[in-house]
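User: Predict the structure for this protein chain, please.
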Amino acid sequence: MSEPKDLRRGDFPVLRSIPTRWSDDDTYGHVNNVVHYSIFDTVVNGWLIEASGCDIRTLPAVGLVVETACRYLAELRFPETITAGLGLERVGTSSVTYRLALFGAGEAPAAVGRFVHVYVDRATRRPVPVPAEIRSALTTLQA
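Assistant: Here is the predicted structure, written as structure tokens:
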């Protein structure tokens, strides 16, 4: 696999534009680290709703975030439109690992990350297989 700094927009099957907001910048003059995670969450779940054709909030299985990671490579600032790249790292029986990158104006990513969902029964919170609607949508993320 490539080094994170070597990733480019073309390495991701899904690209979404996310404008930064005035409140995203912190006292140090750049987008605060917690915003990166919020963007990851927005990109993954927004794409899941669109790609699956269903409201994921009503499925009997819930995708709980059990792991996130972010490697910061460059600053992002307001006002800037971020391009978020979304790809698939792994699909298991009950889990999905996404790979993500956030790009500012440059070609190299400003941040790269991963995001892991484990699907659980809405009532019991016990692991269940990835729902068919989600699994079907994930095929579009496979290289």
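The first helix runs from residue 33 to 52.
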